[in-house]
C-alpha cells in the first residue's frame, strides 16, 4: 500500500513515490480512462470516416485541403468532447488523490464531485489556456514558464476545494522557488509517455496506411493512419495518463510539505530568543 510521505523528498524520492502511487491508484483509474479514450476514438473516427474519395491526379495542395475539411457538426462535437474529457480528467485526479491517502474512491463518488466542481474547473482551465497562450506568443519561453508555474491548479481546485483564481494562485505560490524541480519531474513523465506513444503510433499507424487499398486514395490513407494512430494512442494513454496525473499529485503534496516546513521555520525564527 502507498505511504504518503510526511517530509519533503528528493527528486529521486518524488519519482519513486510517483510510481508507487501509480501502482496503488491504477485500479481506480482504468474506468475513467477507458471512457475518455473511447470518446476520443469515436470523435476522430467520425472526423476521418467522412473524408470523401479523392479523384486521380488531384494536386497535393488539394489533398491537404480535403484532409483538413470537417464533417457537419464536428466543431460542436469537439467542444462537447473537451468538456466531457475535463470531467473524466477530474475524476482521475480525485481517485489518485484518494489513493495517496490510502483510500479507494468509487467512480460514482468522484464523478459527483467532478460535476459539482465542473464550472470552476472550466473557468480555471480557460484562464490557464489564455495566460499560457499569451506567454507562448511572447517568444515561447514565457509560455513554458507560466504553464509549469500554474499546472498544479486542478489538484487544489478539486480537493480543497478552491475557486479558479485561488487554485491558480496556489499553484503559482507552491511552484515559486521550485520551478526547475517541478519542470524536471514532470518532463521525466512526459518523456516516458511520448516514447511509448510515438513508438506504438508510428508502427501501427504506418501499417494501417500501408494496407489501405487504392493507390489514389491518399487522403483516405492519411485518414486511416490517423484513426490507427488515435486508437493506439488511446490505448496507451489508458496506462500513461494516470502516471502523469500521479506525478502532478505527488509534486503538489511534496511542495505543500516544503511550504509548510518553510512557514514553520519562519515562525520559529520569529520567536524571541533566550
In short:
The protein has 274 residues and is mainly α. The chain is 78% helix and 0% strand.
Rg (CA only): 22 Å
Percent range for β-strand residues: under 5%
Cα-to-Cα separation, first versus last residue? 45 Å
Oligomer: single chain
Residue windows where pLDDT falls under 50 for at least 5 positions: 264-271
What is the makeup of the main sheet? none
Principal-axes shape call? globular
Structural class: mainly alpha
Number of continuous helical runs: 11
In which range does the helix fraction lie?
over 70%
Mean pLDDT: 84
Helix and strand element order: HHHHHHHHHHH
Q: Work out the number of β strands.
A: 0
How does this structure look, described?
- With 274 residues, this protein is an all-alpha fold.
- It has a domain at 11-104 and 178-259.
- The chain contains 11 helices and no strands.
- α1 (11-25) packs across α4 and α6 (118-137) crosses α9.
- The longest helix has 52 residues, at 218-269.
- The N and C termini lie far apart (45 Å).
What does the secondary structure layout of this molecule look like, with pairings?
Blueprint: H1 11-25, H2 30-49, H3 60-68, H4 74-100, H5 107-116, H6 118-137, H7 141-150, H8 154-159, H9 164-175, H10 179-210, H11 218-269
Amino acid at each position: 500500500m502507498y505511504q504518503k510521505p510526511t517530509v519533503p523528498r528528493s527528486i529521486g524520492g518524488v519519482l519513486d513515490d510517483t510510481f508507487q502511487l501509480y501502482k496503488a491508484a491504477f485500479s481506480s483509474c482504468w474506468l475513467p480512462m477507458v471512457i475518455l479514450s473511447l470518446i476520443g476514438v469515436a470523435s476522430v473516427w467520425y472526423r476521418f470516416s467522412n473524408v470523401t474519395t479523392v479523384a486521380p491526379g488531384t494536386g497535393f495542395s488539394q489533398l491537404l485541403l480535403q484532409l483538413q475539411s470537417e464533417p457537419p457538426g464536428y466543431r460542436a462535437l469537439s467542444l462537447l468532447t473537451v468538456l466531457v474529457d475535463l470531467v473524466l480528467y477530474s475524476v482521475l485526479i480525485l481517485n489518485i488523490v484518494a489513493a495517496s491517502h490510502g483510500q479507494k474512491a468509487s467512480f460514482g463518488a468522484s464523478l459527483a464531485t467532478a460535476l459539482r466542481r465542473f464550472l470552476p474547473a472550466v473557468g480555471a482551465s480557460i484562464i490557464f489556456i489564455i495566460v499560457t497562450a499569451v506567454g507562448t506568443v511572447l517568444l515561447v519561453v514565457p509560455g513554458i514558464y507560466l504553464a509549469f508555474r500554474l499546472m498544479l491548479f486542478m489538484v487544489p481546485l478539486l480537493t480543497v476545494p478552491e475557486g479558479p483564481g485561488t487554485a491558480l494562485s496556489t499553484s503559482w505560490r507552491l511552484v515559486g522557488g521550485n520551478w526547475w524541480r517541478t519542470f524536471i519531474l514532470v518532463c521525466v513523465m512526459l518523456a516516458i509517455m511520448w516514447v511509448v506513444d510515438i513508438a506504438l503510433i508510428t508502427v501501427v499507424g504506418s501499417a494501417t496506411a500501408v494496407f489501405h487499398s487504392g493507390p489514389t486514395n491518399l487522403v483516405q490513407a492519411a485518414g486511416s493512419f490517423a484513426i490507427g494512430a488515435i486508437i493506439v494512442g488511446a490505448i496507451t494513454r489508458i496506462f500513461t495518463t494516470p502516471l502523469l496525473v500521479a506525478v502532478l499529485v505527488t509534486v503538489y503534496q511534496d511542495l505543500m510539505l516544503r511550504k509548510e516546513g518553510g512557514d514553520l521555520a519562519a515562525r520559529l525564527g520569529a520567536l524571541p530568543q533566550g
